[in-house]
Fold:
Amino acid sequence: MSTAAASALVSGERRGRALAVVMGGMSSGTVLGVPLGVLLAEHTGWRATMWLVTGLGAVSLTGLAALLPTVPTAPAVSVRARLAAVTDRAVAPVVQVSFLAAVASLGLYTYLAPVLASAGGEHEVAPYLWAWGLGGVAGSLLIGRLVDRMAGAGRVAVLVGVIMAVITGAEAVLPVLAPVPLLAGAALVVWGAAGWALQVPQQHRLLACKEERGTVALALNNSALYLGSAVGSALGGAALSAGLSGDVLPWAAAGVAAAGLARHLRAVRGRSARGARTRCTSRA
Structure:
């Protein structure tokens, strides 16, 4: 709902920046909030972390009540319409790519420690987690303006393809670069930035669909992200339990990301061949 509300509060040419602010908050909460919360708990106890979260929530609620303007209410969507979004030719490929990207990126991130350990040498995982996370915060915040610029030219789909290619490449080279800390850190920054940036153009494309489909598509896309994260983590855990080395996981994740890129390119070519915008009101 936050992404739909943010996009409703700005003009179309600023939609990418509004989505980037929301995604930047999510990435910051994940990347900065978790380690800072753990650090606070180690020094003052876990209750202090919970009270901090409660306090931040109260401040946010107060700010929303005092400053948030009225957000247009979307019309009610029937269950049939929600289910129809799953097979919508304008929505389904975008959601499928988001799912595969989550499997590849968030799933691999879960097992970053064994991946680095399998590369040989001593690896303190915390700096690498910070590299991935800070790259993610930067990518999710900076992508908005670029999305708005690309949307004006009807080229957001091109940006999605580039980002998926970057994710694929960064994960593929990680086992090779892992023995060199600076190079591994650079790869993690790029991977994190691309992984978190992806959802801003993806959400922008879904919101370009007709009003009766846009918010439903966003909800479906968010569900695909969480499902992809769970599936990626489960598959990585199963691979390690089966005795596979940790350095296999980046290659497998890169393969999944490459499949996502292929799915995206196939969908873009299909829409171009049909010469139609299907249910979307603007070019993706």
The chain is about 80% helix and 0% strand. The domain at 2-274 is CATH 1.20.1250.20 (Growth Hormone; Chain: A;). The chain has one domain: 2-274. Residues 211-241 form the longest helix (31 residues).
